[in-house]
Design goal:
single chain, alpha+beta, globular
Length: 67
């Protein structure tokens, strides 16, 4: 299910996690060449992605909210 990004935080391993409007979290790692998300490495890049849509697999699975 498509959900908008409303914020970001770092997890216990210092990886960036997107907070989605549905109440789920989703990792947004920049790990080239497998995952290429250079925007997540800067505050300006993350701010520019607020409101953008990610596919929330947790919603598809009917999972409880993370927050």
């Amino acid at each position: 299910m498509q959900q908008a990004i409303i914020g970001f935080h770092k997890d216990e391993l210092n990886d960036w996690v997107a907070e989605l409007i549905c109440g789920h979290n989703q990792h947004t790692r920049h790990n080239p060449p497998w995952v290429n998300r250079p925007w997540v490495t800067s505050e300006q890049g993350r701010q520019a992605m607020l409101g953008e849509i990610l596919n929330c697999k947790k919603c598809d699975e009917g999972a409880k909210r993370d927050f």
